[in-house]
Amino acid sequence: MQNKKMLLAATLASMMALAACGGNNAGTEPVNEAPAQDDASPSTDNAAAPSEGGVDTTEEVALKMVFVGPKPVDYDAVFAEVNKKLKEKINATLEGEFLDWSDWAQKYPMMLAANEDFDLIYAANWAGYNDQALKGGFLELTEDMLQKYAPKAWESTPSVNWDQAKVQGKLYMVPQNNGESVEKIILYREDLRKKYNLPAIDSPEAFANYLLAVAQNEKGVTPFTPETGDWKYHNLDRILLKQQNEWNMFDLDLPFAFKLKDEKGQVFNVYETQEFKDLVVYYKDLADNNAWSKNVLNSKNDHQQDFRQGKTASITHNTGTTGSLMEQMRREGSPYEVAVADINVGKAKSVAISTQNGTAIHATSKHPERALMLIDLMQYDKEIHDLIMYGVQGVHYEPVGDDLFKSTDKSANYTGFSNWSFNSPLNRTNEAFPKEVSDMVNGFESGVYHYALETFVFDNSKVKSEIAAVGNVMLRYGIPLEYGLVKDIDQGIAELNKQLKAAGVDKIQAELQAQIDAFLANQ
């Protein structure tokens, strides 16, 4: 997951949560002072004094926010500047805690379950937003609270974005307010493709051909490295199952999908399909021919770092992340020629909904009002937004006009974590962002496929124990199949589905289908 710029993503919102790589143009005026007034306009008084709107900021508070991703190298320098501004505006400071990509998926729910001491946390549909909201980990945000303490966010965010972020009619996050495309693509070494005179990588077969050629000829280079800490369905599945077959999955940690063009929204078990079996055959051939590490299930490698250093010949991620990595490598004078590939040209592409990125307030926060004021500033105060998103001006980036920026040799020292929760119309675009990636994104967005279940959210409260059991089965029996490590494919799939039945997969599917039917009946 990395800096991303894209449209808004589909049914994954059922989770809550999870991130990877056009928004509303309203509300681009920055907040100059955070204390809100009754008319939702910012105060011009000193923030350290009680505001006219009744927000008392005389007491300095220390806020803590949990981000996913690694702690930036220059965290101290950037957050020192952020805190200077926050103290001026709302008499608060912010400390960040970072959950590395290799283990965030385990630590994130544990922190919420243990009621650890923090005020804000990155939230997203792919990171279990819906589930954690229902478990009581997040504070409910009311309209009155938002109008008083986060007036710019309330005014500037379209109502559809707020509606998408509701769980059982209640709101638990301030969602992003900026467009985002989350379709996965392939980033690969174009110099190696040319070296071995390989055809364009424009299909699953062409990609496999590339991986096998690298495996046979490039000693010391791993053909493909997956993202560590990924979900039960990894990024290649999202390309070769979701995109290839024009499906969508409600939750990348559950075995269910539906066909985008099925107006009835009939869900099915992916593991019972011929498409899954065909894909496992594809993966097994790649695994048998050393397309990825034999230690793939235990690897903690940073796939992006490995690609940047020439240790791997391809990775997968969203367009924003791959484009940013390409820009960085070109700026640094990398010896490797890199390119991106869409191996499902012409297939329906869906987009992210607003809960692809957002910020939630911990249910036990002692300072929820000040936390909301902080979110408002991070999203809509130009000075603070630039700091939290891009670092220190003149060190980590150079502004180019109001909406572009230029990278510096220190840009890499402030990147890689989930500051995307503050995406807003104030976001800048890297002026050196690769044109070929922008063209690809524009192509995706021009042909976005919208479907009836785009904003459906699954309430899993009645099947929580079954979901936990099914997840364990997927880890134990499904993932080895995903990486071609099971010798007898037919036997492996049969055992997987047997264990899923015992774990209660049918009960989950029945509950999911009932909710979908009710949702569609009300459309």
TrEMBL record:
Alphabetized PROSITE patterns for the sequence: PROKAR_LIPOPROTEIN (PS51257)
Is Metal-binding there in the keyword field? no
Pfam family of the protein (one):
DUF3502
Signal peptide from the UniProt entry: 1-19
UniProt-annotated stretches for the region Disordered:
24-55
Q: Any idea which UniProt keywords this protein has?
A: Signal
Source domain of life: Bacteria
Q: Which SUPFAM superfamilies match?
A: Periplasmic binding protein-like II (SSF53850)
Q: Where is the DUF3502 domain?
A: 454-521
User: Which InterPro entries does the entry link to?
Assistant: Bact_solute-bd_prot1, DUF3502
The protein's name is: DUF3502 domain-containing protein
Q: What organism is the protein native to?
A: Paenibacillus antri
